[in-house]
Amino acid sequence: MRGATHAKWAACAAAVALAATACGGGSDSGGGGAAGIVSSSWGDPQNPLEPANTNEVQGGKVLDMLFRGLKRYDPKTGEAKNMLAEKIETTDSQNFTITLKDGWKFSNDEPVTAQSFVDAWNFGADVSKKQNNSPFFSDIVGYADVHPAAGAPKAKTMSGLVVKDAKTFTVALKEKFSTWPETLGYQAFSPLPKAFFTDHEGWLKKPVGNGPYTVDSYTKGTGMKLRKWDGYSGADKAVNGGVDLKVYTDNNTAYTDLISGNLDLVDDIPAQQLKNVANDLGDRYINQPALIIQTLTFPLYDPQWNKEGMEKVRRGISMAINRDEITKQIFKETRTPAKDWTSPALGEKGGFSATACGDACSFNPTEAKKLIQEAGGLPGGKVSLTSNVDTGSHRDWMDAVCNSVNNALGEGPVCTVNPIGTFADFRNQQSSFKLTGPFRSGWQADYPLIQNFLEPLYYTGASSNYGKFSNPEFDKLVDEANRESDSAKATAKFQESQKILAAQMPSIPLWYQNGSAGHSERISDVALNQFSVPVYDQIKVS
Questions:
Q1: pLDDT value, residue 35
Q2: What is the pLDDT, as a whole number, of residue 47?
Q3: In the prediction, which pLDDT does 486 show?
Q4: Residue 157's CB: how many other CB atoms inside 10 A?
Q5: Whole-model pTM over 0.85
Q6: What angle do CA 53, 59, 65 make, to 5 degrees?
Q7: CA-to-CA distance for 92 and 485, rounded, in angstroms?
Q8: Alpha carbon distances (Å) from 522 to 50, 163, 263, 321, 489
Q9: Low-confidence residues in the chain, pLDDT < 50
Q10: In this predicted structure, what is the pLDDT of residue 446?
Q11: How far apart are the first and last CA of the chain?
Q12: DSSP character string of 42-94
């Protein structure tokens, strides 16, 4: 998601314009009885909160509170467990029969049925709806008819989806995909109520889901109030009264508000505070491995970065980066230098490889300079790195990367930083292919499979392939891995595909990112899931 993933208030930091009544953590009945409200830092989502349109961390946090799908990833283990699915059956890993559990409904009292899923998936796949996550439905028979490469849809629905009765539907895939059921915990596959289709604009202003929370209010640039839904059917009912997500354009300000008692939870500890956080928070500081990797992606849609021989330049830039020093000096044990394009949180059995990137991810300034010179130098003699700078301490590490590159090349300040003020603005430029130099591509997995670290980012035309990398052999290996019924053999195929990434370097693996968070004394039972997102529904308020 793709990964990424942001006073009483009258006296709070000026960067956050919220009313005095929104300050601190007080209590709020707001549909949650006497239980208290958790206040948490947040960043504005890039897109409206439609499940098939949200593919970044900030929006994903909200969808995780508003929706439950066929499966859900266990917050502790990452295992894909049945949620609304009673069973998902197949005899050939290509045709599936899905049966729903009884008793589920949306917060507007509409029942969740097989049609709720089929309608949602058809909407998500429809090219005219312009949903970012459309490619997640591309395995289904009939996708090409609703999402042609060019022109208008030839059909309104995918022929591979068939409703049998209120609790049952079937799915036909174009090819065998043995781990397809494991992907169904991703939010793009969420069901949608009829209200989504009959009053779309109204729904977008106040989304209606089937999860443990409902939206009370949302003001873009300020925050969102979510409140516990007492009618929720799942076992993971909210133990608090709700969550107030508060927009920050500087996570240092959020941290200051946490320390001063004006905020309960910060799930992105700024790099500048890592030297203080243990003393400031003690056991209220969380630092754990997560399914997150940070990379620099090259805009291969720009001919100057994609001409013959430029893979040497891309490889050279990677070798000019001193990952060990940057992670130690800036990130204080919350990042680990990357050795492949996945995450150690997958484990070796899950496909993580400490050798896939090889020498290209090892600091070697002499070889870096040689490779870049052999290929004719940097395009135009310079390179500019781009990221949003409102969260994640991105300005700090970009400056450090450029210093490392400049020192390696010895040609002056040829590497510079192009900071973009907000995450939403950065994502808009990234997703519209307007960036002309390497850009940050933080990736938070949608589901805990090696496939999710590779196919969405590097497969031709994939949903998050913002560099527009395209390689037929890579695509072939991914297709073969997806069709493989033996999980070990499938993982080996995916690992083989990384050899192509190592040779072509469409992106530079920088470091694996831990989930880090800090919380106030007012709340307890705070935990991060494998995706580094707080498990909001289990946070207790004293």
A1: 58
A2: 87
A3: 86
A4: 18
A5: no
A6: 110
A7: 9
A8: 32, 47, 10, 42, 48
A9: 1-34
A10: 84
A11: 33
A12: E---SS-S-TTT--SHHHHHHHHHH---SEEE-TTT--EEESSEEEEEESSSS
